[in-house]
Amino acid sequence: MLEISRISKSFGGLMAVDSVDLSVKRGALFGILGPNGSGKTTLFNLLTGFLEPTAGGVRFEGNELIGRSPEDIVRLGVARTFQVVRFHKDSTVRETVWAAQSMHLGLRDLFRTIDAPSQRDLAEEVDSILERTWLKPHADRLARELPFGLVRQLEIARALATRPKILLMDEPASGMNPSETHQLTEDIRRLRDGGLTIVLIEHDIEMVMGLCDRIAVLNFGRKITEGTADEVKSNPDVIAAYLGTKKKHAHA
Ligand SMILES: Nc1ncnc2c1ncn2[C@@H]1O[C@H](COP(=O)(O)OP(=O)(O)OP(=O)(O)O)[C@@H](O)[C@H]1O
Ligand SMILES: [Mg+2]
Prior knowledge:
The chain is an alpha/beta fold. It has 2 domains: 1-77 and 165-252, 3-Layer(aba) Sandwich (Rossmann fold), CATH 3.40.50; 88-163, no CATH class. Helix content is 38%, strand content 24%. It has 10 helices and 10 strands. It has helices at residues 40-47, 70-75, 93-105, 116-132, 148-160, 178-193, 205-211, 229-233, 236-243, 246-249; strands at residues 2-11, 14-24, 29-33, 55-60, 63-64, 78-81, 166-170, 197-201, 214-219, 222-227. α3 (93-105) crosses α4 and α3 runs parallel beside α5 (148-160). The protein binds adenosine-5'-triphosphate (ATP) and magnesium ion.
């Protein structure tokens, strides 16, 4: 479904992503691990049109993604959540999800021409997304006033509103307490079982190992290994990468 070939990004002299190959199959739950600064978020930025690569290509269902705008890429069915979240300052939770939906559908200007039943369907879709992300009771609160765990859920809701085929999640559990993380793990599994393909960046190694069918590990921009949880866990390069950065790593 997603084929990344020899993708690189340098910032000045720094190779943030260095000739990475990755292949994600439809229906997979694919994990990306790596210490701080290993290039994980940069890789997502390359896939989603937020950064231009120095070299390499990305195909999604046969379409080249490089050179397309972030909006175009969303319309092809690629959604992401952000590690650092920003919401419009006066929007409620429901409005935030609705805005993501209408942006995807390109309805902002057309909205007046949409008939009432279709509008009702769209509103129902937003409701259903709010329910699935545990946000229904908070629908009318301001997005910026949500507690951290719910902010992470709203990120997911906003991504789902664009009707993605693949969802790229950048540290969705960061800042969550253990019970929220447990719930999120269940939610991610349920999304995948519902047919969504997922790529998950997470610092929570246990979570990635427990959830993902396949895991790639980045270090200094390079993919140092890829395999099942058991294969990755026992790889000496992975152990070295993590032990070598344990202190820095603790922050997240
Ligand atoms: N826009 C940018 N300009 C310059 N350097 C950047 C930029 N974005 C990222 N970098 C650098 O590229 C490297 C990879 O950063 P990236 O954010 O991709 O790492 P990460 O694996 O997501 O880290 P973390 O686990 O802390 O989120 C880092 O050294 C970072 O400082
Ligand atoms: Mg990151």
